[in-house]
Amino acid sequence: MDTYSGSLRLSASFPLFDHFNREGAIVRARASYQNAEANLADARLAANETLEQSLGSFRTAGARVVSQRASVEAAEEDLRVQQERYKTGTGTQLEVLTSQTTLHNARLALIQARFDQRIAKAELAALIGREP
Questions:
Q1: DSSP per position, the chain
Q2: What digits encode the pLDDT tens for the residues 31-40?
Q3: Class of the 27-128 domain?
Q4: Cα dihedral angle (29, 34, 38, 43), rounded to 10 degrees?
Q5: Among candidates 123, 10, 125, 121, which has minimal Cα distance to 59?
Q6: How far apart are CA 33 and CA 39, in angstroms?
Q7: Mean pLDDT within 99-108
Q8: pLDDT for the residue numbered 84
Q9: What b/e string do you get for 53-80 counting C-beta neighbours within 10 Å, with b at 16 or more?
Q10: Nearest to 132 by CA among 69, 33, 54
Q11: Residue partners of 11: CB distance under 8 A and separation at least 6
Q12: Quick one: which of 108, 61, 100 has its CA closest to 81?
């Protein structure tokens, strides 16, 4: 037969001194929190900087489009004048060809400016999460 003694033993221990482990953990947690805050602030600044650069690129490209349109108009007028001079015999074929080349280059520059503007617009749209 088993005998029952009727006793229960319960023990607990709480270390009063843990060689500064708790304090070290608190300091590490505080440093991690401060690092996370600094990283968040850096990420926000980087996002704002990227947005400002993209917005600047878009505005610059828009100004280039306006400028290149004016260049195309001026080149078209120059070509018209040179063709009239050639018809009347006061201009040369070389002057007409030079004006045509200038017009061609101005049109190419306008195309490039429009392309750059569209790229900048797409970058802005991507930054704010919208379709261009």
A1: ---------------S--TTHHHHHHHHHHHHHHHHHHHHHHHHHHHHHHHHHHHHHHHHHHHHHHHHHHHHHHHHHHHHHHHHHHHHTSS-HHHHHHHHHHHHHHHHHHHHHHHHHHHHHHHHHHHHT---
A2: 999 999 999 9
A3: mainly alpha
A4: 40
A5: 121
A6: 10
A7: 98
A8: 96
A9: ebeebbeebbebbeebeebbeebeebbe
A10: 54
A11: none
A12: 100
Contact 95, 79 (CB under 8 A): no
The domain spans of the chain are 27-128
Residue 81 is predicted with a pLDDT of 96
Who wins on pLDDT, 18 or 33?
33
* Distance from chain centroid for Cα 44: 13
- Alpha carbons 112 and 120: distance in angstroms, whole number: 12
The tens digit of pLDDT for each residue in 62-103 reads: 999 999 999 999 999 999 999 999 999 999 999 999 999 999
Give CA–CA dist 132/125, Å, rounded.
5
CA pair distance 85, 89, nearest whole angstrom: 6
